[in-house]
Amino acid sequence: MLDIMYEIPSQTMVKEVVISEDVIYNKEKPIIVYESVAESA
After folding, report:
1. Cα–Cα distance between 27 and 23 in angstroms, integer?
2. How many other β-carbons are positioned within 10 Å of the β-carbon of residue 23?
3. In what helix (H) or strand (E) does residue 23 lie, and over which residues does it extend?
4. Which among 6, 13, 33, 41 is least buried, having the fewest CB atoms inside 10 angstroms?
5. Taking a C-beta distance cutoff of 8 angstroms, is the pair 18, 29 a contact?
6. What local confidence, expressed as pLDDT, does residue 2 receive?
7. pTM confidence score
């Protein structure tokens, strides 16, 4: 999990990182939720 702690701050569009039980115990990857950008017409 250290890698995600160092990677996320440099990413500007990250809104949320979900750390589930599977991430902790089964070494799954966390779910990264990104902000959506509205396109102007």
Report:
1. 5
2. 16
3. helix 21-25
4. 41
5. no
6. 85
7. 0.70
